[in-house]
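Worked problem 6 (solution included).
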Amino acid sequence: MRPLAPFFIAFASLSAAAAFASPASAGEFSFAYRTSELSSSRGVAALYERIDAGAEAKCARYGGAASLVFKRAVAVCRDDVMSQLVGAIDNPALSAMHEDAHSGRFASLAR
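Solution. The predicted structure is:
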């Protein structure tokens, strides 16, 4: 049986961080994954880590300054990119992992 070709997800970032970037750098973002990565909890966790790393790399370019405004913009961009990717993949286990990660972030901000 031939392995499945990777799926590609591309979208224009609509995050608040894009407002700080030049229009040329807002651009498209591509992310590839294989459906086989969704077949086990270990695979879902590894995929989520790759999504996190990809979102961080995509958004890090907006954080050129050390100001809190830019750091917040990078965090908002990263969360937006991750939410869009997880939503586009539309897998219950991956969505649950994302929800768990976000509930922890918001709880720590509430303190």
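Discussion: Residues 13 and 26 are 6 Å apart (CA to CA).
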